[in-house]
Amino acid sequence: MKIFQPNFSHIYIENQAKGYPLTKIALQKFSKSKIIEVEHYKDIFNKVGQDFQIQKSSMKLILAKKTEPFLYPASEMVQEFGSPNVFYNTPILNCLYNCDYCFLQGMYSSGNMVIFVNEDDFMDSIKKKMELLDVLVNPMIVSISYNTDILAMENIIPMASRWIEFAKTQKDLIIEIRTKSALFSLINNINPSKNIILSWTLSPEVVAKEYESTSPPFRSRLLSAKAALKKGWPVRLCFDPVILFDGWYDVYNDFFNEVFNEIDPIKVRDVTAGVFRMNKDFYKRIKRREPSSKLFYDNYEVNNGVVTIDKKKRTDSLSKLKELLTNFMPESKISIWGE
């Protein structure tokens, strides 16, 4: 017996979000959904007493118009090879997937998804910021998938393709699209651009099954990344978070061999890696809900407001991790968080 209604059975629309192209696309896509008009998306998304995990089982869609700010400085927990002009934005709040280690379950009280339909305002804010930066020396780098997986939404709302076309028009801009999706085929018809980094998060199959059960399998993601490389796209591989468990070293050793037997490491733009880490407040909120994942019952330390593996264990494991990765590529192409 089906307990929950299908995802997006209900769509909430802010009055000021009506008439935008993305709004029309969403309404056409889900023509049978119940439409509910609201004054402000926070009236639904920020309500008290919501259950994030129950809502993830039957997500509702909220269409809204974002107001400033549109652009945020990147967190120190994001690796970007020392570039000073790194930012992120939030065209979508929340993710189709629901990985155990994801900070979104501690950031938001709601498991529903918000799509901000005024995409031109997001793009204009980037152009304005670029005018203030020394972009000729350091390109501006913007992650558009920091609070979501925008490529995973492409068959629902084609935002990734629209951002790619925008980035192509901006000489000194690099857009990163980080994903666990296997939907590269949906943008395969777009010519590659040096202005776009397609970043796939990959985990060993045993980790993916345990902690990423709502995401596409590891092999599906790997083959999608391989297809993007073959087409000529700049591809980043993200081994993040590396989950430490008994025998993790051997598992990740086999995992890296499998990845780079399938993908030529010379063609990969770069790789990033890091251990489990989370904002302290987000971690506490998740822990209070008594999560089922054993990740939240390990012994961690708190450094500068970040919950993570204790320093000795972290340093040792990341040193071994880097050693494994340097078997395939130069150290200059490897960025490790938490060393």
What do you see in this structure?
The chain has eleven helices and 16 strands. The protein is α/β, with parallel strands linked by helices. It has one domain: pyruvate-formate lyase- activating enzyme. The termini are far apart. The mean pLDDT is 93.
Brief characterization of the structure:
This protein is 31% helix and 20% strand.
**Residue share in β-strands:** 15-25%
SSE arrangement, N to C: EHEHHEEEEHEHEHEEHHEHEEHEEHE
Q: Give the CATH architecture.
A: Alpha-Beta Horseshoe
How many domains, as an integer? 1
Q: Which fold does the CATH topology refer to?
A: pyruvate-formate lyase- activating enzyme
Compute the number of strand runs: 16
The first-to-last residue Cα distance is: 49 Å
Outline, from the CA principal axes? Answer: globular
Q: Looking across the biggest beta sheet, what order are the strands in?
A: 4-5-8-9-10-11-12-16
Q: Briefly, what CATH class?
A: Alpha Beta
C-alpha Rg (nearest Å): 20 Å
* Biggest beta-sheet profile: 8 strands, mixed
Mean of all residue-level pLDDT scores: 93
What are the segments in which pLDDT stays under 50 over at least 5 consecutive residues?
A: none
